[in-house]
Amino acid sequence: MEQNTSTRGIAQAAMAMTIVGTLTAVSATLSRYPVYGGQAVRYAVAAVILLGVARLRDRGTVRPPAARWEWPVLGVLAATGLAGFNVCIVEGTRYTSPATIGTVIGSVPVVLAVAAPLMDGRRPAPRIVAAAVVVTAGAGVANGLGGGSLPGLLLALGALAGEVCFSLLAIPLLPRLGAVRVSAYSAAAAVPMLFATGVAVDGTSVLRLPTWGETAGLAYLSLVVTAGAFIVWYDALGRIGADRAGLFAGLIPVSAVATTMALGLRTPDSAELAGALLVGLGVIFGLMRSADRPLAVAAPADHDEPAHHEQGHEDHPDDDHHSVDRRGIVEEAADHGV
Known about the structure:
Elements: H1 2-21, H2 23-27, H3 35-57, H4 70-92, H5 98-105, H6 108-119, H7 126-143, H8 150-168, H9 174-202, H10 212-245, H11 251-262, H12 270-287, H13 306-311, H14 330-334
Helix pairs in contact: 1-10, 1-11, 3-9, 3-10, 4-8, 4-9, 5-7, 5-8, 6-7, 6-8, 6-10, 7-12, 9-10, 11-12
C-alpha cells in the first residue's frame, strides 16, 4: 500500500504544480481587474465549494470539531501562505522584475527539502537536497535571474516564506482535518485579509462587476487552481512528504511555458527549454529509490486499509487526507491578474 500511496502522491504533486503554472496565461484575462478584490473573490468562491464538498463527504459521520490549537495555525497559514504571499508578490513587482521574484520563490524546493525532514525529526536526505538544488537552478534558468532593488528582494523573500508556510503549516493540521477542510478553512480565512488589503489599496474600487472574460478567469482560478489544486497538493504532502513534494514546485515555470506555447501566445526560448530540462532531471534524481524512505508525514491510512477500519471513521472520514495554490506564478501578479 505504501508504494501505491507514493505513486499517487507523486502524480498529485506533479498535477498540482502543473495546474499552478497555467496561471500565467489566465492572468491575461484579469489584468484590468482589481488584484486584491479579485483574490478575495477567488478564495471566497473556492471556500464555499470546498465547505460544500466537506459537508457532503461527512454525511452520515460524526466529525469532531477542530481542536482549539488548530484555529490559530489555520489563521497563520492563511495570513502567510495565501494573503501574505499574494501581497508580497503584487507589491514586489513594483520594485523588481517578475523574473527576480520567480527566481527567489524557485528556491522553495531547497527550503522544503531541509525544513520538512527537520520538522519530522529526520535528517534531510542528501539526495533530495541535491535534487532540490538542481530543480531550483532549472527554475531560475527558466524564469531568468532578473534584477531589482533591496525592497523588491525583501518582498520576494517574503513571498518565499509564504510559499514555504503554505506547505509546512498544513502538515500538523492534515491528519485530523483532512485535505478538504484545511483547504476550505484556510481559503475562507484569507478572504477578509485580502479584502481589507484591497480596501486599503484601491478604496471603493476594490470590487466591480467582472466582464465575461474576467468571470471565466476568476472561475478557473477558484474551481481549478484553488479548490482543485489545494486538495491535490495537500493530499500529496501527506503521501510523499513536503521534501519530495517540494521538488515539483519546479514544474511551475515549465508549465507556464508549455501553456503559453499551447495557446499560441509565444514560443519558448533556449533558456526556458534548458531550465525545463534541468527541472525534469532534478525531479527524477530526487525520486530515485524513494521507496526506501518512509513517508515524511504520518498520514492516516486509506479507507481500504484494515488499520483504518479498526480505528473507525470518526477522525478520518475523508479520502483526501491531506491535500498549494500556488497559486503563485509571479507573472500573473505583474499583470494584476493574481
